[in-house]
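Here is this case:
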Amino acid sequence: MHRCLFTAALALAPLSCVPGINGADGRDGTDGADGSDGRVGQKGKDGVNGTDGTAGSNGVDGTNGVDGADAVDGVDGTNGIDGLAGRDGEPGADGDIGPAGPPGPLQIPPHLDALDPPVGSANSEVRITGSGFSTTLGDNLVHLGGHAATVLRASTTQLVVRPEVATLDATALALSVEVARQSSNPLLFTLVPEGTPRALDITLPSAPSSVVAVGPSVFVAAGAAGPGAARTAGLYRLDADGTVRRVLAADRIDLGGAGAFVDGPVALASDGTDLFFLTTLGSARRFEVATGAVTELLAPSFGGSTFPPRSGIAATEDGSLYIVDRNLESVLRLDATGSLSELSDAGFAGAFGIATDGVDLYLSNELSGSVTKVADPAGAATVTADFAPCAHPLRGIAVVDAALVVSSSEDGVLRSTSLASGGACAPFGDPTGYHYSAEGLAVDGSGALLLAQPSGGVVRRLASGAPTAEIVVAGDLPAFGAARVADSLFLAAVGPGLFGGAPGGQPDGAVLVIDDDGTSRVLMTTSLPLGLLAEDRGDRVVLTVSDCLARRIFTLDADDGAVDDVLDAADGLSCPAGLARDDANLYFLDTTLGGGPPARLGKLASDGVLTPAFATGFAPGTVFLALAGDRLLATSIGPSSTTGLDLQTVGAGAGGVASRLIAGAAFGGGPLLVSPAGRVFTIRSGIGAVLEIDPVAGALAPFGSTLVTAPGGGSGGGGGGGGGGGGGPAAFALSGAFESDGTLVVPDFAQGAIIAVTP
């Protein structure tokens, strides 16, 4: 508030009460001590000079009022109302860098492990296995020598692609995969023209010559005397579940310009823990079953005219090995210390096989037809040359319980005599049930007799008390039926006895499966299977098989072995052969072999209605059947031009009488194969030519090159090792099957190979 000032001495009229001009005369009260009236706005944000706080009564002590501002330091005025907030100060300095956050995701380049197949045409499906792929098809860029391949299916570890680029000649290209701008390592892919054949990396135990059991497994020496020896020769193992795989490949000896020689196992023995085997050149080696390690115990035998020079080996309880040397006409003894000695006797001339009861030795003789006994071979070595006269040339020999069992190379019959006393041999088991001569005999852990039959291409097992011997190992047999499901090839295989040469007079056969990992398995022993279809039911594969001699058509579960008859002799079957199927019907040829009435074609509908003569007029011996669109095609097999080799056809809907589509002189017979795209092919047996059939125009056109592969089909003489050869024609390609991409897979008996023909 303002006060009026009066003087005591002068009675002057009061001066006008000028309100101290806000202490203008009193110097604005020093701005209220710099805004002590109105606190300094936070951190020196210059507060608006507070409302000049009420000037403390202009200093009560200001007598004379003159320049009453001198009443400085009067009672501090009440603090003025807080000033308005000052303006924001300047931005502070940047703070320190905070701690690093967690690492973000990194894009790792894809990595390629393998290509399957590593060879293919523009139409092939190639499986790429590796890591770092995208499940989105378009995110995987597959580069093939500067070209883009088409991705068909994708997972993080596998891609399926199609090259989509054609070539006139085989060309090696780098294949790589790019994902999110990250490129993989390259792998080599060979691009070839369509119709190019190549042998799959599958080895079959062809021409098995010896067999021995070690624990639950059976080992087989095979391939050295079979077709394609350079590809198949080696040591095979039959496991308890029936799977057969090669565990040791034969040595391949390069002969320069003369090719190569295959030195593979031909005879086996065991001490109960490890294997001992003789090779084609006569080397004696140890195979450690637990590790697969091989040690040479005796060098090869060179010189002499008999081949193989050493044909039999046996291990006795004292750790010695006894070896039949055919050139020396003696028995070699290799004792546990590695010391080598020789047993000689005139009775050893012509010796081939050797067996032991753990102490004494027994030798089969091809010349005398007798069994020779050597008692106490490590000591006195007493020889009895005619211990068991059998009157037939002998090869295989084994101790079975209290008997000696031998096999004749002349008639394939097994004969036996007493182990203790010997004497004349008598037939053992069913004389006609073995079909082929057994070059190797052995007993497995269950007491069953095992027969290695190189001329039959199989190993048989005769269980104690069983009426017949079952096939447990099958090599590269001719197959009249084939079906491809995923990575497995199913075959209806027949023994060579169908083409003559079965001493028992009866053909034989088996249904087997061969997987792309190189293993095989016999699913069933049959009589004469001439037709095969496969149905993939997701969790299992069910086969439909026609068996000519058994006069039946049946289904076989490939997983559990269950068999169910579909049709049999009671339904009027004579010799069921080729099979075909559509959505509603099963078609089958009912034929005759070796002459007879014309073949007919039957139909079994899905509702069970049977039409035995749905179509007629087919030539005798017609065995191959295929369904191409709405037409059924049928023909026979043979290299000569006869009416049986005509390609005949009939409508699948109406049936009736078959008509000739292509004359036998031009067609020549052979299997009929229909691709997933509906293209129809045949294979000309004897020359291995693949031909495409135009079922409308009745014309033939070559497809690709002939089925010749390398290393090839050279094979050695009796018991000998196959030469390396450059391959041979597919003389026994009696069937084939297509993969989903159109690759044709052909079992080729002549070369001992499974051949894939690019689509």
Remarks:
- The radius of gyration is 48 Å.
- DSSP finds three helices and 59 strands in the chain.
- Confidence is low (pLDDT under 50) at residues 1-66, 68-72, 711-729.
